[in-house]
């Protein structure tokens, strides 16, 4: 079974417990991402709701079904499909819940991945983690769409945050 950090970040290639130093550095990475999330200035442009795959965790299901006032089974068959043991929203790009005003129809019940985006999502966190391992602190954010307000902020602020926190990193 693949190791998971905080129960949701799959550490591909690691099957046993997370080594202590790795855990320490993952905690630092998570703190950086979480701190940025705290300064989140989402402009609700709706761009991030145009993804091909939007994952829904088991822990999201009941909250979403309740918000839509649907029985759980009806919600699942109407909106979700399952692939390789995971739930995904059926209609995406844009997401079925994106309204014309670019607001999310289920905002306070949206999936955890949407709450975490783009700060504490696995891809950004893994880039922060890799940069922390690298003495040069090179943060590879090439994958980010530079048109989005939130990613522009990350690109502008994350390298400095990494430099500030770097002395705590164990190599
Ligand atoms: S792309 Fe960024 S700024 Fe736009 S809605 Fe998504 S999180 Fe907010
Ligand atoms: S659930 Fe809401 S926040 Fe998440 S992708 Fe769909 S419209 Fe966007």
In short:
The protein has 171 residues and is mainly alpha-helical. The chain has helices at residues 20-38, 58-67, 72-79, 112-116, 122-133, 149-165; strands at 3-5, 9-11, 55-56, 80-83, 86-89.
Please, could you describe this protein's structure?
By secondary structure, this protein is mostly helical. The protein has helices spanning 20-38, 58-67, 72-79, 112-116, 122-133, 149-165; strands spanning 3-5, 9-11, 55-56, 80-83, 86-89. The protein has a three-stranded antiparallel beta sheet. The chain has a two-stranded antiparallel sheet with strand order 1-2. The two termini are 26 Å apart. The structure holds iron/sulfur cluster (2 copies). The site of one iron/sulfur cluster has 10 residues, from loops.
